[in-house]
Sequence to fold (205 residues):
Amino acid sequence: MNTLVHVVDDDPGVLTAFGRCLRADGLEVTLSGSPREFLDRYDPGAGGCVVLDLNMPGMDGLALQRELGCRGPMPPLIFVSGTADVASCANAMRAGALDFLTKPVEAGVLLAAVLRGIGADEAARSRRDSEHAAEQCYGALTPRERQVLPHVIAGRLNKQIAADLGISLKTTKVHRSRIMQKFGVRSVAALVRLAERAHVQPGSA
Fold:
């Protein structure tokens, strides 16, 4: 998967400077002179982060942030501005921005923020992939296995589960074994972790 750093700024000088700085460190960079230009080329499937100016004509940085939020998982956003007010900065951070830098931005500060953004994106994508895999395992369960699973991850014994669900102890053991097989685990502790990623809550007695 390609890792891209998208720089969005209506100032050509800033675009050139930021692009040169980031490319010098071996990063792949795209430069957009407006949010619309950026949206036309943006691929949510590519990893990376977005460095964007706060104040731009037409769609500003905050509006672009809202637009990205409507399109799916938000990429890490690093705002830059030379005229930012406290309210705008607060709004950006509340909406999930990773950082807010003040122009002129030192090369080392920009690079550090971008590397944090790339790391945050990789962690978020890994988490989503893990959740998707766990949800697929859950999707492979039969309706009865889905009834048994919350009791298993709650730490209940087979005989307790059998009594709760009105099934035989032998049948309960079979369901439990098949659940473990479908999730590809050998311990209840591992099953609990995967069940959490599949958003399955422990059952109560």
Remarks:
- The longest helix spans residues 107-139.
